[in-house]
């Protein structure tokens, strides 16, 4: 049986505070040697993920901006999936709204709310770097959004979220920031990509790794789901059947789950 591993990035594959892969980097190499694709599924942009993929030697498809689109390296499958666009060396399956449309609806939500909704699109790269702690170049990659907007919401957050919903936008919360996007989510993208693997590869087992509530759609869409520990200790309170709570914070938990998968002992604590 073939496996495909879908993983969140910040707090799962990457340390939530340093952004480093640490022990997960070696685990990625072991998965690659065994021919197991690793699909990044994150709120991060294409630009951010391209840099990370290059640094970690990952060449498989990836899911950007909370399921806004799936990027498949051109020629990855024997034929281009129906509906995919050809763009800069990729076959792109778009599931979300264009960034310009999200920004337009955000302005309408802002008027409805009567107070500003500040997102990356309102700020310079220098301002994003200052607010997030990112380096300037990393802030530029983070600003290169195509399918969702990162928001700096102020209290009362609930009123702002209602204004987003009234304009037909969905939202997600990844631990630090809120994201406004269209009808897409990580789970929708995972299911579609799993179908493509099955069409071209035959039966596959989809494995999912995450660390927070924002990963629930991803974990619901896979066959084997695991949650890594949070930096503050313990696991995010997610109630999903068969969910494995892996010991180890972030990349340490990722590495432990990857080893268990490779050694045929998924769900065991060692």
TrEMBL record:
EC number(s) per entry: 3.1.3.70
GO terms assigned for molecular function: mannosyl-3-phosphoglycerate phosphatase activity
Coiled coil location: none
Keywords associated with the record: Hydrolase, Magnesium, Metal-binding
Class of enzymatic activity (EC top level): hydrolase
Pfam families, alphabetized: Hydrolase_3 (PF08282)
PANTHER family, per database record: HAD SUPERFAMILY HYDROLASE-LIKE, TYPE 3, PHOSPHOSERINE PHOSPHATASE
Name of the protein in its database record: Mannosyl-3-phosphoglycerate phosphatase
